[in-house]
């Protein structure tokens, strides 16, 4: 099993990238979102991979993070969802978006992916809703490490790290919030729905803010 490739981009096509790994070129199929995030030709990049094996076919599918790959594995476990449909769903929503849509039962969001009809979208939500909390909880350990922030020059020629730009609520932040809520005694499914909704309402939220927002959503309604 090939789980990860690190090499240089040879070229990018409409649905795949040719990755040069030590002089060997690997054709790796990726979602639109992943392809758009890859650097240009000659640049180095790592991709986490999943190998599809059939009698007459071997295909590698590439993902920017292990968390995204984990959602791909879940998606293709649903009857009627092949690798192409999974790539379409991940390309449209991203891993965090898929987690949020399934947790909230939002079949319409899944249906927005090209080639995914309403019945298949509903099946995806129905079959994966109970698996979503565990997968979200894995996000913290599976997420890719963030790079160091760039340095900026200050008076006297010294340098300091520039503040990192605000990022959307990451899988790590959602996983940490989910874990905290479960430790407080909330059921995994209820906690996952609250975290997913909170992350959808505030794309910049970090773990403490997600926990506070989720607790408000979980509070009994008078």
From TrEMBL:
InterPro entries noted in UniProt: DNA_helicase_Holl-junc_RuvA_I, NA-bd_OB-fold, RuvA, RuvA_2-like, RuvA_C, RuvA_C_sf
Gene: ruvA
Domain of life: Bacteria
Region of interest called Domain I, as start-end residue ranges on this chain: 1-64
Family: Belongs to the RuvA family.
This protein's name: Holliday junction branch migration complex subunit RuvA
Keyword 4Fe-4S: no
Domain note: Has three domains with a flexible linker between the domains II and III and assumes an 'L' shape. Domain III is highly mobile and contacts RuvB.
Domain Holliday junction DNA helicase RuvA C-terminal: 173-219
Occurrences of domain DNA helicase Holliday junction RuvA type (ranges): 1-62
Keyword field: Cytoplasm, DNA damage, DNA recombination, DNA repair, DNA-binding
Quaternary structure and interacting proteins, as annotated: Homotetramer. Forms an RuvA(8)-RuvB(12)-Holliday junction (HJ) complex. HJ DNA is sandwiched between 2 RuvA tetramers; dsDNA enters through RuvA and exits via RuvB. An RuvB hexamer assembles on each DNA strand where it exits the tetramer. Each RuvB hexamer is contacted by two RuvA subunits (via domain III) on 2 adjacent RuvB subunits; this complex drives branch migration. In the full resolvosome a probable DNA-RuvA(4)-RuvB(12)-RuvC(2) complex forms which resolves the HJ.
Organism: [Roseibacterium] beibuensis
SUPFAM superfamilies: DNA helicase RuvA subunit, C-terminal domain (SSF46929), Nucleic acid-binding proteins (SSF50249), RuvA domain 2-like (SSF47781)
Function: The RuvA-RuvB-RuvC complex processes Holliday junction (HJ) DNA during genetic recombination and DNA repair, while the RuvA-RuvB complex plays an important role in the rescue of blocked DNA replication forks via replication fork reversal (RFR). RuvA specifically binds to HJ cruciform DNA, conferring on it an open structure. The RuvB hexamer acts as an ATP-dependent pump, pulling dsDNA into and through the RuvAB complex. HJ branch migration allows RuvC to scan DNA until it finds its consensus sequence, where it cleaves and resolves the cruciform DNA.
Region (Domain III): 171-222
Record's subcellular location: Cytoplasm
């Amino acid at each position: 099993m090939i789980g990860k490739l690190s090499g240089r981009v040879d070229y990018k096509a409409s649905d795949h990238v040719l990755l040069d790994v030590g002089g060997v070129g690997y054709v790796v199929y990726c979602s639109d979102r992943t392809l758009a995030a890859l650097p240009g030709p000659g640049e180095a990049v790592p991709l986490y991979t999943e190998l599809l094996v059939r009698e007459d076919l071997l295909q590698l599918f590439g993902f920017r993070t292990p968390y995204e790959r984990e959602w791909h594995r879940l998606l293709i476990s649903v009857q009627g969802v092949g690798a192409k449909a999974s790539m379409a769903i991940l390309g449209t929503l991203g891993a965090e978006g898929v987690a949020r849509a399934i947790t909230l039962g939002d079949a319409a969001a899944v249906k927005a992916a090209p080639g995914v009809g309403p019945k298949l979208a509903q099946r995806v939500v129905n079959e994966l809703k109970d698996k979503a909390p565990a997968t979200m909880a894995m996000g913290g350990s599976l997420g890719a490490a963030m790079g160091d922030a760039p340095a900026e020059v200050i008076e006297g020629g010294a340098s300091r790290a520039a503040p990192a730009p605000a990022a959307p609520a990451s899988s790590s932040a959602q996983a940490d919030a989910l874990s905290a809520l479960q430790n407080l005694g909330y059921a995994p499914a209820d906690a996952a729905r609250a975290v997913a909704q909170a992350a959808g309402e505030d794309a910049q939220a970090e773990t403490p803010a997600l926990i506070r927002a989720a607790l408000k959503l979980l509070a009994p309604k008078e």
